[in-house]
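B., you asked whether I could sanity-check this one before it goes into the benchmark set. Here's the sequence:
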Amino acid sequence: MVTQDLPQLQANQIYRLWAVAETAAAPTYCGQFRQNGEGVIRWTVPDAVCLRSPEQLLVTLDAPEDPITSAGPLVMQSQI
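And here's what the prediction gave me:
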């Protein structure tokens, strides 16, 4: 995944990546990340659906302690 122009995060924030396998399917949690000083991100893919070609990818803004059963505000989404 390559992103650009995502705002730098506060200490109590994290970005989370979600994959939507097919239209109208619930998003699958794919991990969380923060940019380093150069704006680069790294994360480990926890679910195979995240490696397949999902219908859509979503990035949300969450707190690290938020449950992964629901997403915070949407900050970026791939085109369908």
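One thing to flag: The chain has a mean pLDDT of 82. Otherwise nothing jumped out at me.
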